[in-house]
Amino acid sequence: MSIKILVLVFSALIISARPELIADHHLSTRISPFPSESSSNSPFIPPLPPFTAQSPAIASTSFTRVPALFVFGDSSVDCGTNNFLGTLARADRLPYGRDFDTHQPTGRFCNGRIPVDFLANRLGLPFVPSYLGQNGTIDKMFQGVNYASAGAGIILSSGSELGQRVSFAMQIEQFVDTFQQMILSIGEKASNRLVSNSVFYISIGVNDYIHFYIRNMSNVQNLYSPWLFNQFLASNMRQELKTLYNVKVRKMVVMGLPPIGCAPYYLWKYKSQNGECAEEVNSMIMESNFVMRYTVDQLNHELPNASIIYCDVFQSAMDILKNHQLYGFDEPTEACCGLGRYKGWLPCISPEMACSDATGHLWWDQFHPTDAVNAILADNIWNGRHVDMCYPTNLETMLHA
Ligand SMILES: *[C@@H]1O[C@H](CO)[C@@H](O)[C@H](O)[C@H]1NC(C)=O
Ligand SMILES: *[C@@H]1O[C@H](CO)[C@@H](O)[C@H](O)[C@H]1NC(C)=O
Ligand SMILES: *[C@@H]1O[C@H](CO)[C@@H](O)[C@H](O)[C@H]1NC(C)=O
Questions:
Q1: What pLDDT digit, counting tens, does each position of 154-177 carry?
Q2: CATH of the structural domain 66-400, one choice from 3.40.630.30, 3.40.640.10, 3.40.50.1110, 1.10.10.10
Q3: Alpha-helix runs per DSSP H in 247-278
Q4: I need a labelling partner for 215 at 20 to 30 A (CA). Which of 51, 115, 161, 300 fits?
């Protein structure tokens, strides 16, 4: 039986078997997980000068200029959203950010830059600011906004034990709000043009495993096999990508899930002897990636003019892990910052818990890679410099088309 048929059959099963979970998801687009949002309170939007396409200088002019970068996701790309939320998942204290441009914590779950910072550079754009860090005016948003929130998942309740977070559906809703503000400010035609030429970067789903499925929340393991669960995630992703498409988004980068079975937390939890990865975790992630890649492929055929690429972080990360010495890493398993075996037992919460030099480490903390790894991942997304991990093309090629 072909994959396509399998997927169809399982999708049908999901829809008929679990209406309540799906209904739950729809609710998530309406209920805000936190009391107020800066930008939607004020009905008054100050007039702005008309948007012009040639503000920042850009090194390469060989592709259509990308006016903005919009980011959705979890802690892999959060750049400060959670600083405004009541949650344990915050990276607003040192040693987070110690190797960043400002050497200050920003909310990024890294010692330095996250992949979207490197990609913004490639696109000739400034670092994209977080949505909740905005003060209600829209002028800063024309070069992009980052809606990502650490702990968030595709499922509304994923990550709930950590506290507040902005779920994927809510992030999309926040973008739709931004889009409406743009229309009020620069008109519909200019807004459509801006959005359809911009890059939308989506990196979410791993918390649906870390904080939901693997923890057997809501008895999920009894109700869903891993295969059915990843079908459920993919059908949600599909729906959200279509929502973006309907507001004129055309260029999307969908990131696959990383091999968290190799992250220090799971090495500690599964009592890894010599740094071998938790296969049970990784096999679920691989299966999920397989389905997500297929979903993206389907959407590319279904949606006219859409250019969606799927980037397999798993593949690229495993290459770095396997060939870490060639890449210049001498510590492939132990985090730079944390406590316990592999520094995977306790989260990184103080500068004393951190190694002095993170450059040889693959892992910064329990779950997140170092700046050096993020740079390699971004290079691979951009042009497949080390590993071709994006399908059907890398980002640079997609923008040339
Ligand atoms: C909002 O922030 C921008 C710069 O970040 C600043 O120029 C502007 O005055 C601020 N507006 C308000 C109302 O605080
Ligand atoms: C998941 O949790 C339910 C109760 O919440 C329990 O009955 C079931 O055995 C658990 N499944 C697994 C695989 O641990
Ligand atoms: C696709 O692109 C063509 C050429 O730019 C345009 O005429 C057409 O309206 C677009 N279709 C959709 C659905 O965006």
A1: 999 899 989 999 999 999 999 999
A2: 3.40.50.1110
A3: 264-269
A4: 115
